[in-house]
Amino acid sequence: MGEQSLSQPLSPSPPASAASTPALSASTTLAAASASRPKKKQRSSDSSASKKPRLALSVRGRPLSADGEVAAAIRHLRAADPSLAAVIDAHEPPAFHCPHRPFHSLVRSILYQQLAFKAAASVYSRFVALLGGEPGVLPDAVLALTADQLRHIGVSPRKASYLHDLARKYATGILSDAAIVAMDDRSLASMLTMVSGIGTWSVHMFMIFSLARPDVLPSADLGVRKGVQMLYGLDDVPRPSQMDKLCEQWRPYRSVAAWYMWRLMEAKNTTMPPLITPALPAPGQPFTLQQQQQHQPAPIQIIDPGHMLPGLG
C-alpha cells in the first residue's frame, strides 16, 4: 500500500503539464524529462522493496528439537522436492538435541576450530576440567582464565583471545543466552559475527546443531554445495550465491535438507572425513550426527567459512 501511494502522485504530473501547454518548448521538454526521473527512482525503489519479504524470511520457526518437528520437516521436503525423497529414504531421520547452553556451545565451537576431532576433544576435556566440570563453563569463569592457563592445556593465544572476547561480550551484556535464543536468525548472525573468531560458517553450524533452528542454509559449506550438485546432476558445484535459488523449495526446513546433503556426500565416499564438526554434545549424548562422526576412521577437521573441506576432491 505504501509503495502505491508513493507512485500515484508521480504519474498524473506529466499529462497535466502537457495539457496546459499547446506547443512544447525546449524548457518544457527539459522539465518533462526531469519530471520523469523520479519515476525511474521509484521503480528502482519498488524493485528493491519487492525483495524485502525474501530477506525477512528469517523469522524463527519451531526448533527442530520440538516434538514432531523433524517429522513435519521430512513430510514437507518429500512433497516439495521429489529428488530429495530418495535421499531421505536412504537414511534414518536426524535428531537435533543439544544439552548445552548457548554460551557453552559457542565456547566448544571455538575450542574445536582447526583441530582434528580427537585433538579437539582432548583440549575440550582439559578445558572443562580446568573449570571444575561442565557446569563451570560460565562467562565470568572463562574471562578469569589467563592466557598462560589456556596455553598450558593446549589452547593457542589466538583462541584464548576469542574465548575472552566471547566471555567479555557476555559479561558486559552485549550477548546473553536468553537474547540469543530469542533473536531471529538474521539478527543472531549479525551479533555473533561480532565475536572474534566466529564467522558465518560457525554461526550456521551453531544455529543448526545447538539451537536447532529449522531454516538455516549453510550456502558456503562445500559439503552442502557438492550435495546439491550431486542431487540435481549439475555440471559444476554451485556457487554460494546460487544456493538460495537452488534450494528455495526446501524452505522453511533448509537445515534438515542441508543435513541430508552431508549424508549424501558421506554415502558417496565413506572413506572421506566427515564433512562438518559443529559444536556437538559430549560423547554419549543423543545426537545422531555426532555418533556417526565418532565412528569415522579419518580425523575430523574444523574449517573456517569459505575454505575448502578436506577429502572432497
List the helices and strands and how they pair.
Blueprint: H1 2-7, H2 13-20, H3 26-50, H4 52-55, H5 69-80, H6 82-89, H7 102-112, H8 117-130, H9 139-144, H10 147-152, H11 157-171, H12 177-182, H13 185-192, H14 200-209, H15 222-232, H16 240-246, H17 254-268, H18 288-294
Q: Could you characterize what this model shows?
A:
- The chain has 313 residues and is an all-alpha fold.
- It has helices at 2-7, 13-20, 26-50, 52-55, 69-80, 82-89, 102-112, 117-130, 139-144, 147-152, 157-171, 177-182, 185-192, 200-209, 222-232, 240-246, 254-268, 288-294.
- The longest helix has 25 residues, at 26-50.
- The radius of gyration is 25 Å and the shape is elongated.
Key features?
mainly alpha, elongated, disordered N terminus
Give the helix/strand class.
mainly alpha
Basic shape: elongated
Q: Provide the β-strand percentage band.
A: under 5%
Radius of gyration: 25 Å
Elements, N to C (H/E): HHHHHHHHHHHHHHHHHH
Q: Using DSSP, what is the number of strands?
A: 0
Fraction of residues in helix:
55-70%
The poorly predicted ranges are 1-58, 271-313
Termini separation comes to 51 Å
The average pLDDT is 78
Count the helices. How many? 18
Largest sheet: none
